[in-house]
Amino acid sequence: MKDELADLIKSKPESGKGELGLPIAIMGAGSVGTQLAQTVASNGHNTNLVEINPDLVESVQRELEANMDAEIKRWGMTEGEKRAILARIAVVTDLEAAAQSQFVLEAIPESLEAKQQLYLDLHEICPPETIFVTNTSILSLTEISSKLPRERQKNMIGLHFLRPVPDIPLVEIVRAVRTSDDTFEKVKEFAESLGKTPVEVFEYPGYITTRIILPFLNEAMCVLMEGVASAEDIDTAMKLGFNLPHGPLAMADQYGLDQVLTRLDVMFHELGDLKYRPCPTLKKMVRAGRLGVKTGRGFFDYRNNSEVEQ
Hints:
Rossmann fold; 12% strand; 13 helices; alpha/beta; disordered N terminus; disordered C terminus; N-(1-d-carboxylethyl)-l-norvaline Dehydrogenase, domain 2
């Protein structure tokens, strides 16, 4: 079985945008995983979206549809395109789906131990040529892959997509210490097939985007905490003053304040730089369960789809 799959993986697609011959497997059906599945499928790839909890399969399918319905409402997609994309996505509960994939994209929560165990499991079922791709924004790829055989580690690489994945044209391609040039070139070609502009990054905490954006968000929270201005005025100043589509506090709400806190904690631990020390206001809001858009309240109130300072 593995030999047959290896032969398929080595073969090149004959034609068609994104037609790689084998489905793409995505591990993890959270918000990033579902957005990845939509992005991959909308560019012509058949996609296996793996959610190991069978009780969540229906909710994952509903989220996929809801994401696309939102795009239809803002004229970003047609009903026909939605149906075509959904036809390319299979929500499955078995890791064995990865055995039939050239690329396995992992988008599970940012836990080193969980990611290491997942890749050990995938190593047992995937052919040697399978390329393992992680979407982590803060963890070390080299450390994630450290428990894998050395030969397998050359096929480990990072693709850091920014949310919302279908809309952001950028992706960071992150090399681990042992990532091969061949793996890099294949993944770059894959990223371009998704309509993304790839930038090459060598492994370092936070890469480019996370490292630069976190102090920006954190400082805006400190300005609010110190009473310099209201949340609404801080975001208005930054949007109009620097031609940004979103202010830093609304941006943090969209990311999820718990996710911002986790990333700041990791960066502070890794680099010891005070600019990554989480603002006390951020910690207070996370403890209160006000995590941003996903809970309806963060720095702004989203329960009526409006941004109102709290």
